[in-house]
Amino acid sequence: MGVIDSVREQKSGMMADLVFAVAWVVGVNLLFDLTNGPDWAYYLCMFAGVIAYFGFFTSLEMARAQQ
User: Fold this and answer.
1) 17 lies in a domain?
2) Which of 6, 9, 11, 24 supports an S-S bond with 49, CB 3.0-4.6 Å?
3) Residue 23 to residues 5, 15, 56, 62, 66: CA-CA distances in angstroms?
4) What is the pLDDT of residues 5-29, one digit of tens each?
5) Is residue 18 part of a domain?
6) Which parts of the chain span the membrane according to its record (predicted)?
């Protein structure tokens, strides 16, 4: 299986990942542009996006499994 076949197979999942990442980064940037928060808090919020990503998609999978 080539890379192109893999991308075609996972297209909707990759798009959801991209949308989540862009929304998280834009949201954190807007928040810290408005509040002028400290750099350490900015980086902590960016790292929290990784945890939020896995939490969101894990709970989504669990909800789909219960249906």
Assistant:
1) yes
2) 24
3) 27, 12, 13, 22, 27
4) 777 777 778 888 889 999 999 999 9
5) yes
6) 12-34, 40-60
